Amino acid sequence: MASCEMCGYIGESLHRAIVEGTLLSLCDKCVRFGEVVQLKQIPKKIVDERLEYYRTHRYSSMSLPPDFSGDENIVKDYAQRVKNAREKTGKTQEEVALDLAEKSSILQKIESGHQEPPMKLARKLEQFFKIQLVQKTEKIDDDDVENYRSSGADVTIGDVIKLKK
Known about the structure:
Elements: E1 2-3, E2 10-11, E3 15-19, E4 22-26, E5 35-36, H1 44-57, E6 72-74, H2 78-89, H3 93-100, H4 104-112, H5 119-129, E7 134-136, H6 142-148, H7 157-160
Antiparallel strand pairs: 1-2, 3-4, 3-5, 6-7
Helix pairs in contact: 3-4
């Protein structure tokens, strides 16, 4: 019998997973904190490269400070662009996730359109695939306010906000 290297649970079915750059044996409950590694399916060299990446970079796109440049946003068709670019490379989602040091489930959600990538991950995807995912946001001028003005004499918040759909 072996024990979970995170919580200490003693059991027979443990999973190998990378958690913050360390390969651990984890129970079913703790495995969600890392990325499962199937050593039989993925060559040891790739796992070693992934671990080295974590050790040298010590970050993931989710833990980096947010980009406060409010004048940029993700393009609407990000899911299709990422999927097409990945398919052109001939790699699987798991392989691309390993290359980017991200979870494959995040990449899957992005490609399906269920999750918009954070700005840092969008930048990583842009560099990796050489595609455009981030665009500049248009600023609203006083002339634009006049164009969106409602029937009332005063400008309301609804007159200047463009709803994102």
